[in-house]
Amino acid sequence: MAGATNADIKRVLSIQSHVVHGYVGNKVATYPLQLLGFDVDPLNSVQFSNHTGYKTFKGPVSNEKELATIFEGLEENELLPLYSHLLTGYIGNPLFLRQVGHILKKLRQANPGLVYVCDPVMGDNGQLYVPKELLPVYRDEIIPLADIITPNQFEVELLTEKEVRSEAAVWEAMEWFHHRGIKTVVISSSDLGQPGVLRAFLSQQNGPRLAIDIPKQGGKDLVFTGTGDLFASLFLAHSHGSKDIANVFEKTIASLQAVIKRTVASLPSGGNGPVKAAERELKLVQSKTEIEQPQVLLKAQRLN
């Protein structure tokens, strides 16, 4: 790697879930990253038939020993300096998560400029979908190692142990993360907007505080799986080498909203009647152009 700079390296080690059918975890993160010029090496925390929102799902959950063995192969082949980023998403086992901490330290030894984007996938809408034992591992061991973190509103409450029900509480929570050394904190969605509007927030340590209002799409009960995973991968891609964090935030939301819009348009009832899990799968491949060339329609407001 003689002569290569961090700006030249664009390779992501992405540790998250894999599904055979549909788009969540590594399946939803890999394609956008590749379209935006990154090599992606997916390392799967689980291998399921489909995401857990279906009536049934089958498949193995990987353990920390398997993770360590796979990573050892990368290390012994001297591949670690090739990574510019680590991206983590759904992990269902506290020991596996702890092993991610060891992996990150080794990646940083090989490339001190490596950027860690952590999506602490734990739950949504008040519901935890990982064992509660993951929470202290995230809070005490993993979060302080991250450069960029992209939790949802519920995950922020879990980590900070404080309710986030007002905008003042959002900025207090952001400071909790900054205090632990995290440079960029993005809350990918919250219900703190006007009725029918989601509000996303971003705070940079000693930098701007931003918010974007996002009109909800489809019927009120329509929920998409994999949007947070997609958000984290897009944000990673756009933030690489960019000094304009507002533009990064806007482009990420623009592509995400375009994918959702296309998905809603494809629904048999236009999203207003009952929808099967398979019909709600994100129309990712069909949104290639919107991922490569985001059309920014929703602008970030600067709040400080």
Automatic annotation (TrEMBL):
<comment type="similarity">
    <text>Belongs to the pyridoxine kinase family.</text>
</comment>
<keyword id="KW-0547">Nucleotide-binding</keyword>
<dbReference type="GO" id="GO:0009443">
    <property type="term" value="P:pyridoxal 5'-phosphate salvage"/>
</dbReference>
<dbReference type="GO" id="GO:0008478">
    <property type="term" value="F:pyridoxal kinase activity"/>
</dbReference>
<keyword id="KW-0067">ATP-binding</keyword>
<feature type="domain" description="Pyridoxamine kinase/Phosphomethylpyrimidine kinase">
    <location>
        <begin position="103"/>
        <end position="265"/>
    </location>
</feature>
<dbReference type="GO" id="GO:0071326">
    <property type="term" value="P:cellular response to monosaccharide stimulus"/>
</dbReference>
<dbReference type="GO" id="GO:0005829">
    <property type="term" value="C:cytosol"/>
</dbReference>
<protein>
    <recommendedName>
        <fullName>Pyridoxal kinase</fullName>
        <ecNumber>2.7.1.35</ecNumber>
    </recommendedName>
</protein>
<comment type="pathway">
    <text>Cofactor metabolism; pyridoxal 5'-phosphate salvage; pyridoxine 5'-phosphate from pyridoxine: step 1/1.</text>
</comment>
<comment type="pathway">
    <text>Cofactor metabolism; pyridoxal 5'-phosphate salvage; pyridoxal 5'-phosphate from pyridoxal: step 1/1.</text>
</comment>
<dbReference type="InterPro" id="IPR029056">
    <property type="entry name" value="Ribokinase-like"/>
</dbReference>
<dbReference type="Pfam" id="PF08543">
    <property type="entry name" value="Phos_pyr_kin"/>
</dbReference>
<keyword id="KW-0808">Transferase</keyword>
<dbReference type="InterPro" id="IPR013749">
    <property type="entry name" value="PM/HMP-P_kinase-1"/>
</dbReference>
<dbReference type="GO" id="GO:0005524">
    <property type="term" value="F:ATP binding"/>
</dbReference>
<keyword id="KW-0418">Kinase</keyword>
<dbReference type="InterPro" id="IPR004625">
    <property type="entry name" value="PyrdxlKinase"/>
</dbReference>
